[in-house]
Amino acid sequence: MKFTDGFWLVREGYQIQNPTDIRDIVQKGDSITVHAATKRILVKGDTLNGTLLKATYSSPMPNVIKVTLNHHKGKVDHGPAFEIFNQDTDVSIHKDEQGAVLQSGKLSVHVDKTNGWDIQFLYDGKRITGSGSRAAGYITGPNKEAYFREQLDLGVGEYIYGLGERFTPFVKNGQVVDIWNEDGGTSSEQAYKNIPFYLSNKGYGVFVNHPERVSYEVASENVSKVQFSVEGETLEYFIIGGDNPKDVLNNYTTLTGKPALPPAWTFGLWLTTSFTTDYDEATVNHFVDGMAERDLPLSVFHFDCFWMKEYQWSDFVWDEEMFPDPEGMIRRLKDKGLKICAWINPYIAEKSYLFDEGMENGYLVKTADGSVWQWDLWQAGMGLVDFTNPDAVEWYKSKLSVLIDQGVDSFKTDFGERIPTDVVYYDGSDPVKMHNYYTQMYNKAVFELLEEKLGKNEAALFARSATAGGQQFPVHWGGDCSATYESMAESLRGGLSLGLSGFGFWSHDISGFENTAPADVYKRWVQFGLLSSHSRLHGSTSYRVPWLFDDESVDVVRDFTKLKISLMPYLFHAAKESTVQGIPMMRAMMLEFPNDPATFGLDTQYMLGDSILVAPVFNIEGDVSYYLPEGTWTNYLTGEKVTGGKYIHENHSFRTLPMMIKPNSLIAVGAVNDVIEYDYADGVALHLFELADQATAEAKVFSTKAKEELAVTVNRTGSELKVSAAGEGKAWSLVLRDIHEVSGVNGGTVSKGEQGLVFTPEKNNGTYTIEL
């Protein structure tokens, strides 16, 4: 939201009061509060009839500083509020006549009392950003509405990322972004997942602690600032420091919640009924059996909206005309090795029997006169479950619990964005704040039920909407994209932006949701989709099984599904990292290579985990240009070696793409490629790529229950490889990629393999040496 007219003028109807003259700095416990007048105070009489703004600095955890800007503090806050995970923190405060310094870990805020309004944030002694003259401001509008804004400095060459799953340009500089959840598809500035957190390539992040609309001007209203503003008397934000961007995400997700670990089965291929298609059990079996007949490993079958009868969403009752025996059908599908997902939303149509239950018991959101809020958009006469009412939450859970007992393993928690603001909530929550926050309560309720019924690390959603903290309830998918290369690229931009907003796991509708893709788009999107965190074939009005596109589509789905399954030892380790460090599985290049300026704007390629670079192909010709950082990289699919430090231009068939392995990598490859859940450590082959002198490569392998079963480290000194292994004692081997001769080994044997020599240890735990 813009308040100025160019650099010099204020927009007509607005008045801005900036903190100008710091009157005092008060220490209270581990915080300091700065009182600042909005004009120069020359005599005591100047203190009358004026405004005094307050800024309080504190620290909820190491390397994080909370800033609370305030005008009048008497306004009642009706909530809701983001959950903040505070920690005991050692804070040091130094005050003198010049000002004050508050230090938390390596992060500090410096208040200069002698220079007007001059606030500096430093990390490890280096300035990262600050708020200077005319930056912070209390603003009144044409109708006496109040706003608070902050403007934080942008340095030369500084780029801003994140702010949720945004499909606009990846680097947010120059953009106006409103944090306001909307059902707007993937081709507009609207977003399903608006997160008031941004990440700077300079190594810090900023989280604005407001669930309501936050308006950002990112190098737009003032091209050397990031401005954010909210309506009201208070603005609160956190400066989050770190040694690098990964460390910042770790600190941010420590503050707002770590992603849960999805079950191993969720990483396999999902197939759906699609949205408005006609289907019954025979149709479902036709597709499931067709996948099996073509040797296409399938992990999950998803029933989209019309598993329930039309006009009755959501009543959580199977349409008996199409599914007369739902329990038997689910049992038969599970006998084929499948997990089951069912579509839901938080809306209750008037025709649903649940509407009367909800209305009678006060479980639905109301209007000011006590009526049930209703409209006809989406479902005729629909109401909205009031998740601020604990009894309504338990009621909603009880209906889903029946489905879990029938055999449903997961729920696609669709919608949650179109939330009205002219309503009344059970607990008195501010409806404007609830607009974005509603999705958090909705997804949390469903996720917690799955954990209660199925156990820890057995819960998984397929969620569309989110707000800050939503990363705790994975998985999220990218919403309604179109069946084009352009939409495929915008989906990737959205996923990378979401990953830089603290979300670890993300998916998208392979080949696009709207319309039906031509075969070339389908095949290219399959490659991208099966080299994503999670992989789902889904559409709107047509089915997405590959044989409906062409014969080669079947081969491509088979190739890349089996490839992903074989990489599960590597991928599940990356997933585990996401839950511990708060970093995404699909990583923007700048996250993995923060010191390489060439990576800062890259949004058509990504790192899958820390070692695999993926560059999807976005055209029918098969041409692709991508950037490789320094070193010798290896195409995992073709074995071709490419020297980095430059852009690469290639042409690929539908069976290959740039899937490049970073030098000094140890990739764990499983012994199975036809079922997603298996013993990842038993028979695992550890592929060693381009290990340099004095370098180390490491790999860990976890069980499907997230227990570490094998850890292998390879160190190189000159021509000697020193290999150390510890774990459960399961069989493993080391593949020396493109090494075809060694002068000696100790502790095992070597044999010739298709991709290089294979070292097999005599004992599965211990230390071994290989002389090259």
From TrEMBL:
TM segment ranges: none
Nucleotide-binding recorded as keyword: no
GO molecular function terms attached to this record: alpha-D-xyloside xylohydrolase
Domain Glycosyl hydrolase family 31 C-terminal residues, every copy: 582-667
Main EC class the enzyme belongs to: hydrolase
Limits of the Glycoside hydrolase family 31 N-terminal domain: 56-216
E.C. designation(s): 3.2.1.177
Keyword Hydrolase: yes
Residues covered by the Glycoside hydrolase family 31 TIM barrel domain: 259-573
NCBIfam families (UniProt xref): PRK10658.1
Family membership noted in the UniProt record: Belongs to the glycosyl hydrolase 31 family.
Protein name: Alpha-xylosidase
